């Protein structure tokens, strides 16, 4: 297939296939040569300006830009004609970009370049702990939530982005959208567990009046559609495992206890309003810790009224101190679950739609462990990532090309990965969220964009992962005119530990804050922690391991 034929394929696909009837403007691209196509006019307007994709009416019509888009809910000024294709779903932004590049390159009829897709770093901001979650509507438009308390939006695959919301004292965990307007973000922060938007993220509102049995922290979200959303939590074995859902677009929520089935719950995935999954761990001893749990993969076929642990036949073989973190299905047959453990790496795989599962250990040369993110492009090719070890400092990633039989080091894809999302097809595109957002595609790497002034490292002297003794000393700078300074600490699982500093009108200049490794009640703590410094509308964070 050459590049001109690829353009025709995209246009046919947009209307339902090469034989689908086309009203309004007709199927003007069918039966034409390349030369005929570039000189075509539609309603008296030139279709293509060779060398100028953005200025070509074909591209403008596909994007719904004036003089096109008269049929859109908010048509652009001076719109006279409908967006193309009229009355159908919009063409994915990735496909429009492909046509635009073809026109920019002079409309060649050369072969489509055979370029192997690779992972590369996008221009999303570095989150010094990590970007916890991402959600994409199509291969270009998506959202991300990170450890700096930001909700970010992109329309070009994070070549560029905008901060839509900043939550200084909130630990954002998960994000999901039903359509370009309606979305939700879950958090680990008491009293602010869920945010929603109905305008594509231009405004985010706290969801209040959650039912008494709502999870104390929202670790997983599954947005089925604009009416049905499920949420799961928590990843704390000393709190009740619970779920909640809405079936009326968030007007009301119902919640229920899951303690009969699990001691902790993390990720959830629903394929429709009734059929879904939630993963986590279950302990059989009182007052359990994470060392006491074994993985569970819970399945429902009636909207959460009843649940079955599909790992029950494996229970005796599953190690203690290991639980389900992220769930990922390729199709209705093949699925995977990342198993988190501080000291080992393993995944679960099903090839029969989740009726049975096989545990697969992950061994690579670097000794990856403490997995969280998992993503497969096909049944043979996949990746896992997470914290990398029990110190939470390495952020290792691993890859397989034989379905998990063998694994190799794959840190080039990114580090500290917590979520993968894929769009599969002839030109597969994928994303991973970790220390930043990473992209998998055959496109050339986007040139780095200048960092906006508000995103430069202004507060912390350094935000690289830190291993330190007690006390922890934080070196920071307060800019002139600051109205509020806070310094917060969360443990590795998002539990708020202590607020070290809370000052109005702080004195500008360099200063230090010291932490004696005790929580808000004065009890000693140890392990890995997320430190976040916030001045007014800007936050910076750092992952820190305390050694005694």
TrEMBL record:
Keyword Nucleotide-binding attributed: no
Protein name: Photosynthesis system II assembly factor Ycf48/Hcf136-like domain-containing protein
Lipoprotein found in the keyword field: no
PANTHER family: PHOTOSYSTEM II STABILITY/ASSEMBLY FACTOR HCF136, CHLOROPLASTIC (PTHR47199), PHOTOSYSTEM II STABILITY_ASSEMBLY FACTOR HCF136, CHLOROPLASTIC (PTHR47199:SF2)
Keyword terms, alphabetized: Photosynthesis, Photosystem II
SUPFAM superfamilies: Oligoxyloglucan reducing end-specific cellobiohydrolase
Domain Photosynthesis system II assembly factor Ycf48/Hcf136-like: 252-364
Highest taxon in the source lineage: Bacteria
InterPro entries: PSII_CF48-like_dom, WD40/YVTN_repeat-like_dom_sf
